[in-house]
Amino acid sequence: MVQAPMDTDDFQPFEIIDGDYDGGMVLLADHAMNRLPARYGDLGLPEDAFRRHIAFDIGIEGLTRRLADILNVPAVLGCFSRLLIDPNRGEDDPTLIMKISDGAIVSGNHPITQEEWDFRLTTYHRPYHRAVEQTISRASASGRAPLVLSLHSFTPFWRETPRPWHAGVLWDTDDRVVVPLIEQLRLPGDIVVGDNEPYDGALKGDTMYRHCMIPGIPHTLLEVRQDLIGDEQGIEDWAQRLAPIFTTLNADPTLHEYKIFPSRTGPYPA
């Protein structure tokens, strides 16, 4: 396990779980944790806000750790709450630092000076992305593209409307991983799997765009409904469901080739 450099509060913005870097797979968990550096207190929010989806992806830290252990693959975990700064947003995304999140006013984020905005980018957001870049690079040392799988969770309701999916596969235009993953997830017939549901996977500047779409690395983002992985048993059940599927995907040589696809968000930066 590689720990990140610490800021003035001894806060670690990322964690790297070591694994077999020659194995061809990397796991990412942008929103694994709900932690804040001590300097920010609670950002003006009540304690229960940090048990909600607005702060982190419930169950994903445990699921990522369990899959990394079963598969013996490296993983990168974000160690700060998305309420501080969202690692799955581009640096110029207006939702990078939220003033209001799902109705909760984040007073610690507004007003915010340019100096503070830049400090959060430099101290938390960029170190996380450097860790992702370095981990993918290390897994690419053989010359093969690694298979990159980003894990997230979503709420069972949007406002008061139930979401029917148990899991969702999000993507832009590179469908190399998407098609077999959805097929394998649906094969047992016991879960509903969304294709670019409950969100659209094309987001300019996000983690998959930055580290996979631009260099042409096979990838996808998998969302699991948070109530299904909200305890240890749920995490274990989903780890056992996903591990053999990920192993099958990783054994496909076509999912270790570099190929650049155009993005639905527009041209890549020059």
- The residue fraction in helices comes out at 25-40%
Number of H/I helices = 5
Radius of gyration over C-alpha positions, nearest whole angstrom: 18 Å
- What CATH architecture would you give? 3-Layer(aba) Sandwich
- The portion of residues forming beta strands comes to 15-25%
Sheet with most strands? 8 strands, mixed
Low-confidence regions: 2-6
Q: What would you call the shape?
A: globular
Give the CATH superfamily: Zn-dependent exopeptidases
Q: Name the assembly state.
A: single chain
The count of domains is 1
Question: How confident overall, as mean pLDDT?
Answer: 95
Alpha-beta content class: alpha/beta
Summarize the helix and strand pattern as letters: EEEHEEEHEEEEHEHEH
Q: Quote the CATH topology.
A: Aminopeptidase
Number of strands: 12
* Arrangement of strands in the largest sheet: 1-2-4-3-7-12-10-11
What is the CATH domain class?
Alpha Beta
Span from first to last CA?
Answer: 35 Å
